[in-house]
Design brief:
Length: 88
């Protein structure tokens, strides 16, 4: 299974939605709260190619995008494969 990292912010509905989908899929992920630790937002922006909004999601270090991108992968039937797991 892919290593999943998600940068989140406090009171972010999109972050909650992305985490909910990953949890429903049984995916373990590392949450990095950009508001809680100094420097984490800058780290996220650098890793995400300049994207400043949360969430920003990474699979095995590859930038996937935000919540809408995650749901688009799921709707296209490609999320499970990107996560390295059988569809189910």
């Amino acid at each position: 299974m892919a290593k999943v990292e998600i940068y989140t912010g406090m009171f972010c509905g999109y972050c909650a939605s992305a985490k909910r989908l990953l949890t429903q899929k049984g995916v373990k992920f590392t949450e990095i709260e950009v508001d809680a630790e100094a420097g984490k937002r800058e780290e996220m922006v650098k890793r995400a190619g300049g994207s400043r909004t949360v969430p920003q999601i990474f699979f095995d270090g590859e930038h996937i995008g935000g919540c809408d991108d995650l749901y688009a992968l799921d709707r296209a039937g490609a999320l499970d494969a990107r996560l390295g797991r059988a569809a189910g």
